[in-house]
Amino acid sequence: MSFNTFGKIFRFTTWGESHGPAIGCVVDGCPPNISLSQKDIQKDMNRRRPGKSKFTSQRKESDNVEILSGVFQGKTTGTPISMIIYNQDARSRDYETIKNKFRPGHADYTYLMKYGIRDYRGGGRQSARETASRVAAGAIAKIVLKKLIGKKFNIIGGVIQLGLLGCNKNNWNDKEIKKNPFFCPDKKSVKLWKKYLLSVRKAGSSCGAIIELRASGIPLGLGAPIYSKLDADIANALMSINAVKGVNIGAGMEASLLTGEENSDEIRNLGGKAKFKSNKAGGILGGISSGQDIITSFAVKPTSSILSERETIDRKGKNTKISVKGRHDPCVGIRAVPIGEAMLSCVLLDHYLLNRAQCS
Amino acid sequence: MSFNTFGKIFRFTTWGESHGPAIGCVVDGCPPNISLSQKDIQKDMNRRRPGKSKFTSQRKESDNVEILSGVFQGKTTGTPISMIIYNQDARSRDYETIKNKFRPGHADYTYLMKYGIRDYRGGGRQSARETASRVAAGAIAKIVLKKLIGKKFNIIGGVIQLGLLGCNKNNWNDKEIKKNPFFCPDKKSVKLWKKYLLSVRKAGSSCGAIIELRASGIPLGLGAPIYSKLDADIANALMSINAVKGVNIGAGMEASLLTGEENSDEIRNLGGKAKFKSNKAGGILGGISSGQDIITSFAVKPTSSILSERETIDRKGKNTKISVKGRHDPCVGIRAVPIGEAMLSCVLLDHYLLNRAQCS
Amino acid sequence: MSFNTFGKIFRFTTWGESHGPAIGCVVDGCPPNISLSQKDIQKDMNRRRPGKSKFTSQRKESDNVEILSGVFQGKTTGTPISMIIYNQDARSRDYETIKNKFRPGHADYTYLMKYGIRDYRGGGRQSARETASRVAAGAIAKIVLKKLIGKKFNIIGGVIQLGLLGCNKNNWNDKEIKKNPFFCPDKKSVKLWKKYLLSVRKAGSSCGAIIELRASGIPLGLGAPIYSKLDADIANALMSINAVKGVNIGAGMEASLLTGEENSDEIRNLGGKAKFKSNKAGGILGGISSGQDIITSFAVKPTSSILSERETIDRKGKNTKISVKGRHDPCVGIRAVPIGEAMLSCVLLDHYLLNRAQCS
Amino acid sequence: MSFNTFGKIFRFTTWGESHGPAIGCVVDGCPPNISLSQKDIQKDMNRRRPGKSKFTSQRKESDNVEILSGVFQGKTTGTPISMIIYNQDARSRDYETIKNKFRPGHADYTYLMKYGIRDYRGGGRQSARETASRVAAGAIAKIVLKKLIGKKFNIIGGVIQLGLLGCNKNNWNDKEIKKNPFFCPDKKSVKLWKKYLLSVRKAGSSCGAIIELRASGIPLGLGAPIYSKLDADIANALMSINAVKGVNIGAGMEASLLTGEENSDEIRNLGGKAKFKSNKAGGILGGISSGQDIITSFAVKPTSSILSERETIDRKGKNTKISVKGRHDPCVGIRAVPIGEAMLSCVLLDHYLLNRAQCS
Fold first, then answer.
1. Interface TM-score (ipTM) > 0.90
2. Radius of gyration for the alpha carbons in chain D, expressed in angstroms and rounded
3. CB proximity A29 to C under 8 Å
4. Which of A161, A273, A301 should one mutate to test binding to chain B, selecting the residue with the greatest count of B CBs within 10 A?
5. CB < 8 Å to A31, chain C
6. Are residues A313 and B253, on separate chains, in Cβ contact within 8 Å?
7. B154: exposed, middle or buried (Cβ count in 10 Å: 0-12, 13-18, 19+)
């Protein structure tokens, strides 16, 4: 039971509203004696924070994270790591319009109906601002995984589809992802994407995206049947991110179009090691990692915060219209890349520790 | 933490191997005073069991479920409901070939590497036979939901894509689903599907499928942010089913192709009630049910148990080949329909009870 | 959340009513590749089962346990171990009197009021018969601990007070415990206890008991602050046993009477190892095992099933009287010894695995 | 699994070290729409904080709690309530002596051995300072219980034994508890207790205590068999408090001395309601509240922080001696009263919500 806590052994609890004084995160179950500094975490925070390019929200947040506990003389102690991020650019006036009207496609309506009360300022708890806490937790998970697994561990995400535009995955280049504002792994797609997204932005509209995550160096044996399968926990983790509507593992939805011959990854002995001839499975068989790269992708819907006027009702049930004028991302999917990486890192570390418990 | 337990308040634990003496399920957290009989559960069991048509495995299992506890004088008592299903047609000789060879696309390799031991007979614990227990638990969940919500509650699943063949969802007909051996909701597709699947079967091959689930009459307010979102829990539940590789909520992966205008479901006041003009969200906003129908779909890969010879290695790491001759489903996706319904029912009941705790 | 499940990683779920067809237990999270046979478990079952002497209930139950899953070719596989124990000597007619009257001191009243329904036969789910399942789970935990820790691991419980009669703990002898029907560790007390308990039985009355548990060979480091402290989890485990009303760790309640000087266990270096000069702490400091013996004790109330007539009300609220004539233990505390050992074993194994996850 | 989280539905997570910048608490699962202000919480904080009399530690902490989230316009919103308490009087120099020596009776040794690292300043995470966070969470639980149950709900704790001195429980007076510095319910004992504790303090020694908690107005039906019994959860909650070594429910350990006749609480119909003639059970039967007052007590050991020199070893294993000169409580049991109340309140609210889920 965990409304605001994620994980089994490596667990984090997030708190905070978009326009409250601060948001934060308590990470529990982190192994002791791991070197950890604020800087390590901040690096990931900066990848997610808004206002960095004209393709993301203009809200100015430094997303400066402070560590309040759990680290002593530069090392984790095994006690909870509490982190706090103060909200800086919270302009509540922007949100007077949404105080009484439900934005279609947002959770305004369901939150108010469920709880009978909600902090409507900037979406309150339902705002994607909460994901900053996830990135902080994920940064710790990555550092721990790197320490436990070694240098071969790597995790990277990229946007492989921006609205209607795909990219060529054969051109995937980890370094390219860090160079363009779209986390796009294919250099050749960047120019067209820029043009496209500017036009979407100018139109006051928004578009969706698909993000692919790749984790390599993952040991065999992570994941536990039947109800702690690695793929099921990844699906849960990614679907919990705001605006995500679909999750694929390996071939994903397209596995339905393959034959048994095409889909099963044949195995060969290569220099004494088992090697798979393909990776339709996405590195997971029967819920357990196979030692292949973990490949997963997820779809982010276009944000419903758009300039176009939309039909809706107000708190009293009256028919009305709404046009959202705040500071928004034309494609929220872009900033979902570091969030996806963070969630996947947390799931992998969690199962790494679980496997150590059961099978070491 | 729950390797073999699913759920938060309404929880079930499954046990058993494909060729052991029996499999079973303990359902915990079921509300008291609900009328429940073996017959009610058996009805759902029969929808999943193999050997009913030439399109599914020829293993003969009556899948007769016995209730061992938790029901007194025809009613639930609030104590755990233990159910047992004896294995009948377990022919272990069929599985001598897989004792020492890893079937590509199956979990043979990962199970053995993780645990250092495995019951290889019929796939042991990794066999889809485990899903019979889920259907038993789901049958109880459905009965309880019907009692708590009333007659307007309905849950139904259908195969909307069989291998390369789709169907016309505009022809969706709940009754049709019960009439054909494919759980296909579109009468017009059945004939072609028959022909197609027979050819797949004759070729000793297999194909995938996509299943769509629809739940109606669901009250607003089920699901709890941030890490017990209804959609994230559904994704977890469906991805935990054997061979599932992708999960969509509402528009799903295709939401990435829509504009903000197309994707946000506008709201109108209709006779004093909020009505959505579309349902791209699949009935869930911010992780909370909106009162619309819950729509979710998932992709099942083609089974890797095929007659075609495939390259693999044996337990000693030697290169070899394998051809699986046992009794298998040409499309495991078909029998996934009642399993998907069962898992969705359990998630919905779980959140119904959780919501009662927090917001009643 | 776990109504009928105990534990964190090593978990067991029990089910079944006193007069239903069977009771049982599903053990989850057991490490793989541990030799395990039905016989190993049965040995512990026999220590708990009734009808062995005139000092316990005359209900005849062989308490024969069957393993239905999770063990393959004599070894655990890491999958759930399902065990079933059929009820044999269930004479429901004995319980017609309690169908409509609430036995004072029993849970008849609270069960019916809470659930609105209950299986009254033999106390149904509230019967101590459920503890047979715990002993089965505990037997597995002991075997695993012995495999993981080695021969130095030992766990033993003894009755140190029988009603008004104590014993001399300085005479504690593990072997003596197995020889007398009271699990009494002090040979000199046995004769008097016999006489005393026979008189209690003849009078149709009952008496309480205090049981002490001792676990040796326990590695330092089990238990995790703050809310998974080893002592807090032991208190939870023991207080969950039927009729238990108090739990002590080390000096326990009497620690309140000591001075700081008397209570703190001084430490010395003995041959390169830390040795404590006393063990007031019961082997646990700050919720973490110190490497000393774990010492804990618990009080069992006298059963309320007595011949003496007692005032009560019936289901309709009418004043009435009741005298319980079924087959009962004059001192239920005696049979609580193997149950206490079982619960302690499960807690220790659980924390052993947890520690491996976090600190290996 | 929850190292630093307590509870099932109403959950709180604490973080922070004694001499870090701050400590805090995240409360999750609080029902929405409950009036809550900082003041309400501060009132309870003040009852626990040190430095109020010469009978407690002289550390000066205002224990000022700040609410960072989860409350909007004076009401809870159903989202996590994050609270922070800055450490003010953290004099790390006081703790240089314990940097390298293990204080007997403290968790210095086990923390370092388990984790290989620890924040030794003031005991770090193992310090009772953590309990301030519990009191904050408990204050919220009390307010919610009062709202849900009504005015008849009351919870109060008192010290019934101070070291070797008891008090007369027949003189129990709720109001008296608030008047004396010992939380003593018996006015007649206060004078002697003062004299006694001053002498303990002067001697540089310390003494233990027994605290009794009484909760009235508790509805029947809280608690769920078998492994979420109300009494077992209370035992867990109280034993998790620093320095607690024993927990009683109702008659507790002394139940072992009673006969079945003495111990079973007879029931009568009084004006249409079931009334018990006594309360040996402490208000709990079969793990479920009976509607009677919940009575529980727990023993706190004398703190091991004493002036007397004690034998111990240092980090290198060398024999040495230690005398603890910091600011300490001569009887830590006194300040355990509000902590015990807090923990009991949290358990009761948790089960209130759970019962609503299962049986409403």
1. yes
2. 21
3. yes
4. A301
5. 358-359
6. no
7. middle
- Distances in Å between the Cα of A176 and the Cα atoms of A180, A181, A215 are 7, 10, 17
What's the CA gap between A30 and A72, in Å, rounded?
A: 13
Q: Flag if B77 and C11 touch (Cβ within 8 Å).
A: no
Distance from first CA to last CA of chain A, Å, rounded? 27
Neighboring chain C residues of D200 at a CB cutoff of 8 Å: 259
C157, C153, C270, C269: which is closest to C213 by C-alpha? C157
Chain segment B214-243, per-residue pLDDT in tens:
999 999 999 999 999 999 999 999 999 999
Packed helices D108-115 and C336-359: angle between N→C axes, nearest 10 degrees: 60
Spell out where B112-265 has E strands. Answer: 154-162, 165-166, 209-216, 244-249
pLDDT score, position A358: 93
For residue D283, list chain C residues with Cβ-Cβ distance below 8 A. Answer: none
**Angle of CA points C336, C338, C341, to nearest 5°:** 105
pLDDT at residue D92, as a whole number = 60
Q: Burial of A360 by CB count in 10 Å (0-12 exposed, 13-18 middle, 19+ buried)?
A: exposed
Given an 8 Å threshold on Cβ–Cβ distance, is C311 in contact with D266? yes
3-state secondary structure of A151: coil
Residues (pLDDT < 70) of chain C are: 1, 90-94, 326-327
Residue A306: the pLDDT is 87
D342 touches C at CB < 8 Å: no
Using the structure block, give the residue that is written with the tokens 């169907």: B167
In this complex, do A359 and C9 lie within 8 Å of one another by their Cβ atoms?
Answer: no
pLDDT tens digits, A268-300: 999 999 999 999 999 999 999 999 999 999 999
CB D11 to CB A28 under 8 A?
A: no
pLDDT value of residue B169 = 95
**What average pLDDT does range B5-13 have in this prediction?**
98
Say yes or no: A283 contacts chain B, CB-CB below 8 A: no
pTM over 0.80: yes
Nearest in space to D322 (alpha carbons), one of D304, D349, D338, D336: D304
**Average pLDDT of chain B?**
94
Give me the pLDDT at residue A326, please: 66
Yes or no: say if A235 and B247 are a contact pair by the CB < 8 Å rule. Answer: yes
How far is C-alpha A15 from the geometric centre of its chain's CA atoms?
17
b/e per residue, B50-74, with b = 16+ CB within 10 A?
A: beeeebbbebebebebebbbbbbee
With beta carbons less than 8 A apart as the criterion, state whether A185 and A193 touch: no
Burial class of residue B248 (count of CB atoms within 10 Å of its CB; 0-12, 13-18, 19+): buried
Chain C segment 40-99 residues within 8 A of B by beta carbon are 68-70, 72, 75-82, 84
Chain C within 8 Å of B215 (Cβ-Cβ)?
no
The percentage of residues in chain A with a pLDDT greater than 90, rounded to a whole number, is 87
D191/D207 Cα distance (integer angstroms): 17
CB atoms D235 and C231 under 8 Å: no
Distance from CA of D324 to the nearest CA of C (A): 12
Q: How far is A149 from chain C (nearest CA, A)?
A: 14
